[in-house]
Design brief:
Elements (H helix, E strand, L loop, with lengths): L3 E2 L4 E6 L5 E7 L9 H11 L17 E4 L1 E2 L2 E2 L4 E6 L21 H8 L16 H17 L3 E9 L2 E2 L10 H9 L7 H16 L6 E8 L13 H9 L5 E6 L10 H4 L3 E4 L2 E4 L7 E2 L2 E2 L4 E7 L9 E5 L4 E5 L10 H20 L2
Antiparallel strand pairs: 1-2, 2-3, 3-7, 4-7, 5-6, 8-9, 8-10, 10-16, 11-16, 12-13, 14-15, 17-18
Bound molecules: flavin mononucleotide and ligand EPS.
Amino acid sequence: MASYLGEHIHVSVFGQSHSPAIGVVVDGLPAGERVDMEELGRFLKRRAPGQNATSTPRKEADLPQFLSGLVDDVTCGAPLAALIENTNTRSQDYAQLRDKPRPGHADFTAQVKYGGFQDVAGGGHFSGRLTAPLCIAGGICLQMLKRRGIEVAAHIASIAREADRPFDPMGESVETMDALKRAPFPVLDEKAGERMRKVILQAKEEGDSVGGIVECLVTGVPAGLGEPMFGGMENRLAAALFGIPAVKGVEFGAGFGVATMRGSENNDPFTVKDGKVVTQTNRAGGILGGITNGMPLVFRLAFKPTPSIAREQQTVSLSKKQVEELVVTGRHDPCIVPRAVPVVEAVTALVLSDLLFS
Ligand SMILES: Cc1cc2nc3c(=O)[nH]c(=O)nc-3n(C[C@H](O)[C@H](O)[C@H](O)COP(=O)(O)O)c2cc1C
Ligand SMILES: C=C(O[C@@H]1CC(C(=O)O)=C[C@@H](OP(=O)(O)O)[C@H]1O)C(=O)O
């Protein structure tokens, strides 16, 4: 399984949703970086399950235990290892899924690939739960980046057809970006947030789920990060962001919108501000030729609706090779998007740190 990321800051995620613990090993963190444990705890809490009606009811404290890599909360240069215990598992909910794979989840493909030896319980290693250890590693990198003037923030850009106001691609204030990190439901327009919550609860009541879009903004990125062709900033971010379960699309800057624009509409004119070359607009999303141009990075991710829904669905019995009905039981997010927002920030911070600290 390809559960590792990064060349210089190498991150390896392990565990399954219902194994005794999940965790991460991070090799290559620079020595001497202080980890603010309270800040990290607040970050992990933003992702943790079981906190409100739009989330899975599975309750987990998601408290990281550090086994190595830190001395008095400061990185010491040795590989950092951290664990989170799984305490609230109900594996019987998954018993039928080895033979009757859930439409939209990885049960069928895992069965094909691992020949029945895969851990089915809780979605095994495919579970969104594996994003918790990613947030430990990414949360540390977010602190390292902030110390160097790089701010990463994401918000819920839309749920189903309800949309927030988009980020200003030229950047947002640090106050606005920080406020999103304190918000239990991170949106820029509270009224839009209310409508989104309603859409999620409505779908849940109907035994269904909804998807949506997360938009991410990174300010303070120096020009010159990334390589042409296959080592581009877009390539690296996309490869990592597609590792978040349920992501089905990633677009940078004006994204798919460029297809209907003219060059005169899409090009960002250059100008000089305070002696620095900048662009007047930022439809490129801060990347040209795979290399950062010094403008903010802006990108969006499409999340599919949660596959495990309460409604009856059609599947097959793999042993009987016949069509059967399936009712998925258990505890699930009616929408993945709100809990995925800090995960997007974490993965972004890991990719940027990998390039910056090389
Ligand atoms: C934070 C988070 C929470 C998730 N919660 C659930 C869930 O409760 N139920 C579910 O079926 N899928 C959930 N997913 C999505 C599945 O893990 C994912 O759809 C599945 O592994 C198949 O992978 P794919 O959608 O990338 O193809 C969650 C994903 C994330 C990132
Ligand atoms: C526990 C988390 O979310 C889980 C993600 C998930 C899935 O299939 O991705 C399925 C559910 O697992 P379980 O059936 O064990 O409750 C969610 O609760 C988490 O994200 O921390």
